[in-house]
Amino acid sequence: MVAPPRLVLDGWYLAAFSDEVGRTLLQRWICNRPVVFYRLSDGSVNALEDRCPHRRYPLSLGRLDGDVIECNYHGYRIADDGVCVGVAEQPDQPKASTVRFPLVERDGLVWIWPGDPAKADPADIPDTWWLSDPGWTHVQGSVGLKARQILLVENLLDLTHETFLHPGSIGNAAVAATPIDVTSDTRSVSFTRHMIGIEAPPFYQKSMGLTSPIDRWQDGDFYAPGVFVLNIRLAPTGTEEPDGFHMKVLYGMTPATDTTTHDFFCLGRDYKVEDEELSAFQLQQQLAVMKEDIDALEVQELMVATDPGMIESSIRSDVAGVRGRRLLDKMAKREAAAEAAAAPARPQRPAAAAAPAGVAAP
Amino acid sequence: MVAPPRLVLDGWYLAAFSDEVGRTLLQRWICNRPVVFYRLSDGSVNALEDRCPHRRYPLSLGRLDGDVIECNYHGYRIADDGVCVGVAEQPDQPKASTVRFPLVERDGLVWIWPGDPAKADPADIPDTWWLSDPGWTHVQGSVGLKARQILLVENLLDLTHETFLHPGSIGNAAVAATPIDVTSDTRSVSFTRHMIGIEAPPFYQKSMGLTSPIDRWQDGDFYAPGVFVLNIRLAPTGTEEPDGFHMKVLYGMTPATDTTTHDFFCLGRDYKVEDEELSAFQLQQQLAVMKEDIDALEVQELMVATDPGMIESSIRSDVAGVRGRRLLDKMAKREAAAEAAAAPARPQRPAAAAAPAGVAAP
Amino acid sequence: MVAPPRLVLDGWYLAAFSDEVGRTLLQRWICNRPVVFYRLSDGSVNALEDRCPHRRYPLSLGRLDGDVIECNYHGYRIADDGVCVGVAEQPDQPKASTVRFPLVERDGLVWIWPGDPAKADPADIPDTWWLSDPGWTHVQGSVGLKARQILLVENLLDLTHETFLHPGSIGNAAVAATPIDVTSDTRSVSFTRHMIGIEAPPFYQKSMGLTSPIDRWQDGDFYAPGVFVLNIRLAPTGTEEPDGFHMKVLYGMTPATDTTTHDFFCLGRDYKVEDEELSAFQLQQQLAVMKEDIDALEVQELMVATDPGMIESSIRSDVAGVRGRRLLDKMAKREAAAEAAAAPARPQRPAAAAAPAGVAAP
After folding, report:
1. Looking at the partner chain, which of B95, B353, B358 has a beta carbon nearest the beta carbon of C319?
2. In this model, does residue A327 exceed pLDDT 80?
3. For the whole model, what pTM was predicted?
4. In which region does residue B214 sit, left (phi positive, over 0), alpha (psi from -120 to 50) or beta (all else)?
């Protein structure tokens, strides 16, 4: 058994699309914890650990009374900051609370910070201007993946797999045959792959009316721990930037548990932005391609989980993926060390409420 | 992961209803062990560990030959005391046996003692006179619960949950709003909740024709490790005892495994004892209410099992539940200490049979 | 929990029937490892660990290009000796390989050696001449068993179970009542059971037209770690060898994982070898009998896996089974000791490929 790596908690993960969060309580697992998402009466999003501080019953099965969640098991009332403000029908006022997570809503996306809230800086969220720019349009969605997050990260950081897994849509020989240039820093890994004068893959022939030869750029940015943006440019060979067709695909690779992952995507384009038929086609194509990846990654998860310790081989096209993996390893080790140094690892958890006066050993 | 607590073995657990046990071998798991239940030719009930001492095949898949079970794998014949009395078709007479459990049958219930048989005293079984009293009638049944037993114990010892989980049937605001008085000793925890001049919940309006205001008593007795009896009295406000409607609900909370539990019930009443339509209604209502509890407890099990170590908050209405939990903790610790002190922990298991003469290393 | 025993790896296991292996890649788990089976262009069979040395993706999902498997995730090309000979569409030539297993094809069977290849001697494969002898015919097949291999071994080495599990087909009282003679050496255990002047079981009455009394011989040979051959002779009482009806049943008991097992069989006969209706009847009967065994063994697996430590009783009819178990124990212990003494336990695994020049920490 190859145990899944420790998850990185100090980072902004994509948690939901704005239109998924409203006045109906939504449970979603993030980094091994159940989280309840909802909107406060002022319209802002809120997220708490989805366990009542009384007996751990999911708050998401309770009801929203203004900005307070009333637990449906015994009536604990939890305010938006996670603090218990009383118990329905009872005079008790327990000193108890659950964790509130830092959240940011921007460009139709809801971002969560599962780790130490003192380190949560909204400036670290990747720029997604194109999701709200009138010159762009996009489709979006998500699928569930029964595999550890790192396999998805490495899948996206080595796009040579398109040649083999996705030959009928976005892949062809040129992808694997064109080397990448890689740069990285302490929070990100980027690569560029500029394919010049190549044949147009089927997906792009249909959606853009391109005929070969074309230039195809795949410039990828991995923002650790869980975001990847692929910047795509396609144009007849020789066209000068900024002309050409541009697409961007943002992936939110958010661990649900150690071995399950949310795979969110937003696929945007700067051409034919009014063409709804094209949007429907792109959504269907994107989901078909992701299905091929999901199937492959779930098989790979089994192969990895059951392997007693094979040492992998890597080649040039793995440079971005290997750096991404090392970056996550380093971040996880840093968090583990910080956790070992300081006793209380879980953020925002107040001291346990004292036992009530009447509760004594019999 | 919050591991489930060690189960208490020294105690009488409800194992079956009398009409479930006959000449057909019945397998039921009790406290992590498979047990085979059956009736001897004199009509008495019997229970053995459901593993043949030969190769552990379930005796319950064998056949009953008089009072002997013949194992259907290789023909070991096991008498009612668990001792092997021969092997069908073969001359061998192995010295082997399986565990026989202390059993008591009373008032239509079969009780089992999974622990040290030397400590099994039938006088410790809760009195269930009302199950065979002609002035009473009852309905009964059981459901399977995929949760640790302690969650069911705490569910029943804090009935304020009726207000939230069961508002359409037996719960209303008065339950949560009325405090309890709690007493306890070394084997039991009792509480009384007397609601005076309250509105009648839907369930009781229908079954008794009561109109508000009424007096409603909920007097609960938890007999550790696994029995709870709720004594209910309903009457028009001001009626003197012993007048009024009386009901009793016995719950057998019997661990099947560490994380699954049998939830038996007998619901009795001392009014309209001939009314079979009312009995059918009460059975259906009771099962509907228990379904709401089962659903809640199975969700809670997941929340508890996946929690790395939340410290719970407790209030006054938890006093009975917290005392119940501590009582079980104390009993389990005492058994663990006794087991550590004495080597052979499993009762009634004789020394292993010696290898047969012909069996030698090659 | 009784953990399953360590699997013996140094031994020939039946892996497949010849007609299962061709130019379509076949994945089958053998001793906790995924293996890909296929036929080379010269017609010979080949087997590799079914993990690409790049990112562990199953090679069996790739495509066969001549005698090279091209991985369908990123294009690694693996030759029949397991060595990577390049990466499709890329100039890299990684030094990487996966394990190739010793294989032997003989009499329509494919044998694999999952352990140390230096110890693999084809002379140790049990003789199966009767599978290709014109005086014999046979039917064959396999079923999946969700139980540890040792339970199947013991099932076959103690045929007294036929009396109880298979009374409607091949079992009757005589089997359990007739003692066996047992011999064994360092690699095998054999027993003989000669039943003289007994009643003919239903299966044989129908397939041979035999009427009682008959002589029935059951001479079994267990070739550790995973082959059992039952030599059956039936004849009217008093008939002299070599007259009479002869049957042989070869069982391949090949661990898939610690708790799942492939149960292969070949059932041969030396009479009515042209009778296809009889062959169809024998196949159907054999599968029906094995279904009874599978059902029993899967229940037994649960009983064994959940047992905290019962000590089994054994009798004379267990002598062969107990010797078989001890033989496997001894072989497994020897392998564990050898593994502990020498660091690299996995055969044929070359040193890990060095990281490519471009792969450095960011």
Report:
1. B358
2. yes
3. 0.92
4. beta
